[in-house]
Design goal:
Chain B: Belongs to the RNA 3'-terminal cyclase family. Type 2 subfamily. Chain B: Its main location: nucleus. Chain B: Keywords: Nucleus, Ribosome biogenesis. The complex is a heterodimer of chains A (about 1000) and B (about 375). With about 1000 residues, chain A is α+β, with helices and mostly antiparallel strands. Among the domains of chain A are: about 75-240, P-loop containing nucleotide triphosphate hydrolases (Rossmann fold, 3-Layer(aba) Sandwich), CATH 3.40.50.300; about 355-435, no CATH class; about 650-755, Beta Barrel (Elongation Factor Tu (Ef-tu), domain 3), CATH 2.40.30.10. Helices cover about 35% and strands about 20% of the residues of chain A. In chain A, helix 4 crosses helix 8 (about 220-235) and helix 5 packs across helix 6. Chain A starts with 11 loop residues before the first helix and ends with a helix. Among the domains of chain B are: about 1-80; about 190-290, RNA 3'-terminal phosphate cyclase, insert domain (Dihydrodipicolinate Reductase, domain 2, 2-Layer Sandwich), CATH 3.30.360.20. Classes of the chains: A alpha+beta (about 1000), B alpha+beta (about 375). At the A-B interface, strand 13, helix 14, helix 15, helix 19 and helix 20 of A face helix 1, helix 6, helix 8, strand 17 and strand 18 of B.
Chain lengths: ~1000, ~375
Amino acid sequence: LEKRHQQKHSGPKAEKKKLKKQKGSTEDDDQKRNPKAFAVQSAVRMAKTFHRAQDIKTKKHHIPLVDRSPFEPPPVVIVVVGPPRVGKSTLIRCLIKNFTRQKLGDICGPVTIVSGKKRRLTFMECNNDINTMIDLAKVADLVLMLIDASFGFEMETFEFLNICQVHGFPRIMGVLTHLDSFRNNKMLRKTKKNLKHRFWTEVYQGAKLFYLSGMVYGEYQTQEVKNLGRFISVMKFRPLVWQTSHPYVLVDRMEDLTDPERLRTDPKCNRTVSLYGYLRGTYLKNKGQVHIPGVGDFQVTGVNFLPDPCSLPDAQKKRALNEKERLLYAPMAGVGGVVYDKDAVYIDLPANHVKQQQDMVRPTTELVHSLIDTHATLDAKMASSKVSLFSSSEGSFYCFLSSGAPRWKESLQQKASEAFLRQQEAAPNLRKLVYGSVVEADDSEGEEEEVGGMFRVIRPQKCKRFQVNALDCSRFNPDTSHNWEAEEMLNSIMDCFVTGKWKECQDAATLLKEDEELFGDFEDLETGEVHEGQTGLQDQAEVHPVSLVKVDEEEVLKNKRLEKKRRLKERFDAEYDDGDATYFDDLKEEMQKQAELNRLEFEDVDNETRVQYEGFRPGMYIRLEISSLPCEFVINFDPHYPIILGGLGSSEGNVGYLQMRLKKHRWYERILKTRDPLILSLGWRRFQTIPLYHIEDHNGRHRLLKYTPQHMHCGASIWGPITPQGTGFLAVQSVAGAKANFRIAATGVVLDLDKSVTVVKKLKLIGYPYKIFKNTCFIKGMFNTVLEVVKFEGASVRTVSGVRGQIKKALTTHPGAFRATFEDRLLMSDIVFLRSWYPVCVPQLYNPVTSLLLPVGQKDSWAGMRTLGQLKHDLGIRNKPNTDSLYMPVNRAQRRFNPLHIPKELQKALPFKSKPKQQQPKGKMPRDLQRPSVIREPHEKKVAALLHALSTVHNYKRKKAHLVQHTRHKEFLQQKEKQEEAKLKRQKEARKKLYRVMGQMEQKQHRSSLKGVPQDD
Amino acid sequence: ICGPNAAIHGLVYDGCNFFRQRLVLSTLSGKRVKIKNIRSRDDDPGLRDFEASLIRLLDKVTNGSRIEINQTGTVLFYQPGLLYGGCVEHDCNPQRSIGYYLEALLMLAPFMKTSLKATLRGVTNDPTDPTVDLLKSTALPLMKKFGIDGDGFELKVVKRGMAPGGGGEVVFTCPVRRTIRPVQLTDPGKIKRIRGVAYSVRVSPQMANRIVDSARGVLNHFLPDIYIYTDHMKGANSGKSPGFGLTLVAETLNGCFLSAEMTSTPQGQGDPVLPEDLGRNCAKLLLEEVYRGGCVDSSNQSLALLLMTLGQQDVSKVLLGPLSPYTIEFLRNIRDFFQVMFKIEVKKPSEDERNGGDKVLMTCVGVGYSNISKTLK
């Protein structure tokens, strides 16, 4: 057994160790002690390491963005996604119970809760309709993706992940449920691992996957839910491009404001609806345009902000929320002071709020009343002949006289002139002058006189401030009251020039003085003398006697001091920090400054005014009123479907041609056909459109494709809503019903917006020669008139065999025939074609998917325009193929070739071996040339046989002797070689010996010569 | 009901005043506009030739615009297309000078699909509109502050043509930008130098020198660093009418430009002016401009405010002199088209400073406008 190491606590070793620890071995130390270890071993390797370090450093850089996140952020939108019966509602219920200790029955619509001191959450359940999945993916901050572990991933999960990828990736957290169905522990572990790795490949390596092990009384285990809640409440979110550049509202309350009388008379009239929710994303301008996915585009009639129904607790120093602060707000589910009924919402509002609204409404209705009253005939008014006074706070503005013109306009004019005068006299309130009661566009009806009852005399108006038809000129004519000859006038701008007086902080003299102060105090180290700045002493002397200065003067002094301090600090920073500040650092600092300015600029302005300048801030609870919503929106309202108000930027409400880059999804089984309608999800919108697919040739031409390529990007042009470039989109062929297959057909990105497209397809015009003169050829059948030919003069043509040519001139004999020249002579059987490009127009179909307007329960059955294939299938039409395109058995006739005939003259000239005679079979030998055959006598036969036998024996003997001779010769050669080798060896030895002797001699000589030199001295 | 166009009804205005602003803002915001009662009570009703020329220019730089004008020309309907840019040549109507057209083009140029190269022909200098020299020396440096710069940003006076004959030529090139930078122009700084151009065409070259002398006589009182170039164009470059004029620019330490200008009365329209008077009056106009002060001179206020509005969603600030009526109407139009309101604060100069009149600090949050015409590669 080995003894354990005993650490010394006392003695010299311990002392030494303690000393070492105290000093601490720095890098410097190590380098000194072992310099070799830190020496440059390889310059290449060092360069590589440096390069890599820099690469890693640079990769971490992102383009700095101005931090525009709101001070009081809106609730985080948590979308709970998963296949049916996986436990979505249960999870939401458990989380709500975890945070607020309240039990919620049916989860319909968004549920907002306060989860912590600085965080609120909005839960939204996502059903399995692809429309809902698309809409919610666009507004989600966090996605809880529920996965049934006993089943594994389903197609919807992958679809949702793909949707997220296209529309900006929100945070995604997987939650495995149904883990209690595993009996086998090993199996459970294996499944968990498999699912985790599959999830990682889809989201990112190391994405969080949560396990909910089992149910207790129909709920998940408290501790697990609590942990999940903790994860959610500390999670950080990244800003997504689309979300941060567009305002949006996830509606949590809807009210129908339509006049009930109108509803009674016309139940299908357009509805006026107010929608409530937290504003997210970015600032929302009043009277902007919004898109409601599933309904359409609408102009917002009015926006106002309301007190927060689910506000964060007041800032107090404590850890947890108390019971009162754990708020829950879900009007669609009937919680939070609001009762949700089938066709109405009852809200319990504080009394003062209602009053406020009424006050606001009154003046406008009066205006309307006055307008309505003017519709009454003059006679009727004459008959009544009364002066009707309206009870208005502003007095006689709305008083009526019995005249035809609408009086409110006159009064406005009067009001305006008054305002103008007031503004002239008093200090000008510029804001009111610019934005308040703008009435320059009054018409001059009041001042018209009638002449003879027929003509009107028009008098040009002189008193108007801005004439509507005045000269449109940006020049601002100078104030005539300024006399620039006068000395005081000249004096009034003296300080605008560098020669004038400077501010104290900028004046060169004061700055110099300050420098003296700053660097004036120093101690002469050699003499030990202390020099003090003069001014400092003076300042003190000045300050000391005047101890009873007023508070404001003190304030001024304090400010001055602070200012000075700031400047000194700036100078210090400039001297020590900015030396190694990179461009990146500067940019970052600039952004930070801008963010600070954004935050502080309107901080102390009251909300009413602030909203006018900035628009409504994200985080506000707002109410949007939209008139003219289709009645189906209200009638078929289903709180389980999300209503999203997506704000549109300027000109995003227009339609135009969009050019995009598209790729068929690799999991989608079929390729897509040009001109087949496709449902796109782009920006906030879902719409059906007809795309044309094309590909860019090398010369920048966009050539039409009939089908999308299999594994490649291609271009697509559509007629659709103008959406900023760089926005991603996805395409599905149908949104109706659930299918087993993967539904996302293609994904891509918008590249270009335009009002025209340049997609072309190839068109080959075919013609046939009818007369051939050497290289010139007359061709017909390509065109029909001379005019057509004239348009194509000079165009290049080609034959199928590749002979190139050019169209020269039209012929008058055949209409449409022309003369063309070619690089070679054509044959009558050649076909001439002209390759041209024909522009294709994109069909103007833009059909928004109005799935929210469908009846409850059928919202996932929206069907738009059918594809040609579907139509044919539905109508039972089979295509009749072109008979030329059909395959037939090929019958090839036997080909016969004529014998080759070579003229006699040529034959004569040919060399002998090439003469065709040689190739011919030989004819019969003439009799006289034939050798007669010899027939032997019996004796002769015998002799011949003996001779033959003898020669055979002789041959055998000779062969044998030759063999023997051969072997002997071989042996001889071997021996000779051996001798040669031995001789060479010997010679080598001898040479070696000789050289050694020679070398020794030389060395000796050399040595002696070396020795000889000093000996000589 | 559901189509994107259905929701927009467009904006309706009366009268031909502020015609350019409305068309430019309409083009940038994509909102259609209808202008009614254009000189409907005039003896000569309807659009004038110069307005028609402006519309034609807009049509040239855009793609897919729809313009409808009624029979008498009193009603104009304009549905903007996308800004296209590229090489544009335009013969501007000589009723107004090129400055009239160029002011509109300056506002549109950074938001085109391809960088703009516009050749404008017509009157380069006339007394009513800002001349090309003024725009060159003030509007271009102003736009540079908003991040619109680069080598392709230039305004070149090739030929000078005075009113009424014209015959001048100007080449304006501008690169495209996807976004505009927010600015904080709150401190103009003190004026460090004064520069200027005294030009004369088809008159004695001595005129320019006489202008310079008289202008310097007034300005020398304030600053020693004054240099006024004389520009006498001859032959084919001198246009069709005689005339002369002066443009003065004051540059501050912080790179702000204030300018004033004066042009001789067009031939055959009113009394001729002496070059000495013109020089002196122009110098006084510059003093007036200095008195108004601010970081942007009075004729470019609207351009600065537009670029602030079109910036990213950040706070922009700019200090202006008193708002001109044109700017006030422009602010209202910005509110109509972009729903942006400016915070307007009057800055009174402190008593011991002699910095001219009251200033106005304009603050706004940009709309986060991005150039939707530019192609993504």
